[in-house]
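Protocol step 4 of 6: structure prediction from sequence.
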Amino acid sequence: MNEDGQWIVLMGLLVALGLFFLALIINQSALVGQTTAEGVLEFPKNDIRDLREAVFDYVDAYEKHDSDPSKIRNDTVAISLERKNAVVYFENETPRDVSGRMLHPVTIHYNNGVTDYDETTYY
């Protein structure tokens, strides 16, 4: 009796099972990679940088008194809410002596429902 055909069928079954498990692992890794990429994309790094730039422009205008700083502040808050769906609050305090320099403590709050960002910096 010739049993060579049984070995061929058995090896084909093992190869098929191996390919099935590899496909399952690759599918899971693609899902994990996608959710990781979505997490990175959801962090609004550029939005926060733009907000910081607008806040520092507000502090400069506040120091120079070239324009009404309350209008700049209200516009920044309204634009952030309208364009980015983000609640923004910032506060410019009186200057303090920091290492021999008079700097403004600036508090920035940013919340878009996913990311909550708070910062206090001296400018």
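Step 5 (inspection) to follow. The beta strands are 87-92, 96-98, 101-103, 105-111, 116-122.
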